[in-house]
Write a structure and sequence with these properties.
The chain has helices at residues 2-22, 27-31, 82-89, 109-114, 117-125, 142-152, 156-170, 179-187, 228-237, 302-329, 337-344, 346-352, 356-359, and strands spanning 33-43, 50-57, 72-79, 96-98, 104-108, 134-138, 194-201, 208-218, 221-226, 245-249, 257-274, 277-293, 364-373. The protein has 384 residues and is an alpha/beta fold. The strands form 2 sheets. Strands 1, 2, 3, 4, 5, 6, 7, 8 and 9 form a 9-stranded mixed beta sheet that branches. α6 crosses α7 and α9 (228-237) crosses α10. The radius of gyration is 24 Å and the shape is globular. The protein starts with a helix and ends in an 11-residue tail after the last strand.
Length: 384
Amino acid sequence: MARNTRIIQLIIILILITFFFSGCWNYRELDDLAIVTGVAFDQAENPDKILMTTQVVVPKNLGSEGGNGPTFINVKSTGFTVMEAVRNYNAKLDRRPFFPFTEIVVFSKEIAREGIAPYLDFFIRDPEPRSQAWIIISDSDAQDLLEEFANIEGIPTRALRQMIERQQGAMSNIASSDVVEFAQAFHSKSRQPVASIIEIKGEGKEKEVLLKETAIFNEDKLIGTLDRSEGRGYLWIINKVESGIIVVEEPGLSNDKISLELLLSQSKMIPRITGDKLEIKIEVSMESQIAEQMGDLDLSKHDVLQSLERRQAAVIHNEIMAAVKKAQDLRTDIFGFGQAFTRKYPKEMRSLEAKWDEHFPLIEVSTEIKSSIRRTAVQTRPLT
């Protein structure tokens, strides 16, 4: 909590420095601003309107000598458009909403299924909002996500952002996109966007907020999801697996499990057109180390390690192919296969790109996995 408060104070200081050096702001103008750290969009009671929830800093409650109230408040406003909802916000609070420090933009699944492009236009077109804010899809109402974190975390939106970034570094099995990345995929003719889905589980003291899965979009509409295994398959393909644990069974009859910690990973796509046939090979080169052994097999033996490497490669292959099957079933190229073909075969892709959703499901996908387990001087024999 104290660390989060210091982060908020740092944000305020950075804003002050920015205003001071700009020469066109003063403290009175800063006093008129409500610093927005998160925005959530839900369907309003009037089906023609949107409900916008903004989470804003309460500067007077920051620090040990500040007030006893919350460091953040959530303010709701409605409108036929995002801009109208922003303007209507002024009737709820005596400060103008200020968006450059927005950490997250949350959409309910209901809105995501209808399409989020009209909402993102505000964040792309207007120079003030932060375009690197993470896009999150909420399994429940989007406003609930901000309110639940407000109950357990001093900086709710900061905590959500850190949750996504920690997951990328520690597990790499749920994909994420910021506003710019989503918009780039949306405008591409041969690649579709993805985003993280977050859910609220449990009740009362057992309630928790969790990263659940990866949302698949066709243009700007939510059409499906990738589970965690499929999500890592997607990240293998696009070369964004940073870390994680691969669980394999010990060779033999015991079926005991071994945890392999990913150390290094690099992937690339190799497209090929032969006549009318489209093919793409996913090459993955990776290295891991043994992190945990549940059984009593002697892992110091060369043939045992080779068997583990083959099992590790099989897990990666299966994750990749599961992600490909899900995307091809949905006729939605989230991997950028079309972009890979365009780079290598620009002439051929001129005729294929217009109906890429028809060609994508027919691509034959194969893998080549170079799997290795680091031989180290650490304990390799079981403790039992």
